[in-house]
Write a structure and sequence with these properties.
3 domains, about 375 residues, 11 strands, three-stranded antiparallel β-sheet, Rossmann fold, elongated
Length: about 375
């Protein structure tokens, strides 16, 4: 039978999950801070959950704290002590914000339920073998840290009964070295899929802080979902204006340039990264490109389409293009992709992201097919 504390904890976790699910759009659109804590754990602010408190009964029933005194009287009865301090009382109820910890699988399940996301089925990719140690058997040798006390004493009891030295009136069981038992690992080979996500973003002058914040938030939730689907995942970042370079995550979201835009520079670098580090026969490959739709010329757009057709699309599970609305962006690149790929090409997924309120819908556009 479950302990009442365990039942209460399970009920509280259910309430927390319900609150996160009900407020998921607010977390996403308002940029609520969901903070990674390591080991695939995240800290989530929960300002709307009331903390349990005591309720006091009728004073006429007596009990601790009942008596003839008045509110504010000093405990020892001496006048002048225990009087209220100086200063003005605050106005309104205090902010009772609670932080809760949730795992990546819990958050991914909430995202999946909200957006009705299917599990990803890797297509045409080779599975990679990995060795996993599972402690499912018992051995006669091992370190003290793996000693199995219950099995050790059971062996000692069996030995003493067999030798006639066990006294039911004085039930002492003393293990010998030969009685010691240890948890033993069985090494199993499990097949797992690996994935790489390659983010590309236009950082030219027309992509402002608001646009980059949208990309940051969307990529956080995309990463979270993909990490729940793949045991091994790499994430690479490319920024570009007229030229492209690979950067770390912090640089990806902080850099802003003032030059023109050549989208082909990012796609070329993406191609080089795949060719160098990620065999398409062994990796599930997910390139994402975000921009406001400006490109330097129609000739460069033709080069982009050629790079997609000849290499990136055949190598990838899908290619996702997210167009973040900007007052300075023309949106032309979305139109060019739409005109070429809307008919019968499942690997190209396009999404327009008007503002932060559209982030969840964009994530559903990208992940809703389960590619």
């Amino acid at each position: 039978m479950d302990h009442p504390i365990k039942r209460d904890h399970a009920r509280f976790r259910k309430i927390v999950k319900g609150r996160v699910r009900d407020n998921l759009r607010k977390y996403v659109s308002q940029g609520q801070q969901i903070i990674p804590k390591g080991d695939d754990k995240f800290t989530i602010p929960m300002p709307s959950i009331d903390i349990p408190r005591f309720r006091f009964g009728d004073k006429s029933q007596g009990g601790t704290g009942q008596g003839d005194g008045q509110a504010g009287d000093p405990v020892d009865g001496k006048p002048g002590e225990g009087e209220p301090g100086e200063g003005e009382a605050g106005e309104g109820e205090g902010n009772k914000e609670l932080e809760v910890e949730m795992g990546i699988d819990e958050l991914a399940k909430i995202l999946s339920e909200e957006l009705e996301l299917p599990n990803i089925e890797p297509k045409g990719k080779k599975q990679i073998a990995s060795s996993v140690d599972k402690y499912t058997s018992i051995g006669t040798v091992g370190p003290d840290s793996l000693k199995h006390l219950k099995r050790t004493y059971k062996e000692a009891l069996k030995r003493q009964v067999a030798m006639g030295t066990y006294d039911p009136m004085n039930p002492r069981v003393i293990p010998m070295k030969a009685d010691y038992r240890y948890r033993s690992a069985d090494t199993k080979v499990e097949m797992e899929n690996s994935a790489v996500v390659i983010y590309m973003m236009d950082v030219s002058g027309s992509m402002g802080e608001e646009q980059k914040e949208i990309v940051r938030t969307e990529s956080f939730w995309i990463n979270l979902w993909l990490k729940s689907q793949y045991k091994d995942i790499d994430i690479r970042y490319i920024i570009h204006d007229a030229t492209a370079k690979e950067v770390d995550e912090d640089t990806f979201f902080r850099t802003r340039e003032s030059g023109g835009t050549l989208i082909s520079s990012a796609l070329k670098l993406c191609k080089n990264i795949i060719e160098t580090d990620y065999d398409p026969n062994e990796w599930n490959i997910y390139p994402f490109h975000f921009s406001d739709g400006d490109n330097w010329s129609a000739d460069d757009t033709k080069l982009c389409l050629s790079l997609l057709d000849d290499f990136i699309l055949p190598a990838s599970n899908m290619f996702c293009y997210g167009q973040v609305e900007s007052r300075y962006g023309s949106g032309q690149f979305y139109k060019d992709l739409f005109n070429k790929y809307t008919e019968g090409h499942e690997k190209v997924i396009l999404s327009k992201i008007k503002n932060k309120d559209a982030i969840l819908d964009s994530i559903k556009d990208f992940l809703g097919k389960g590619n």
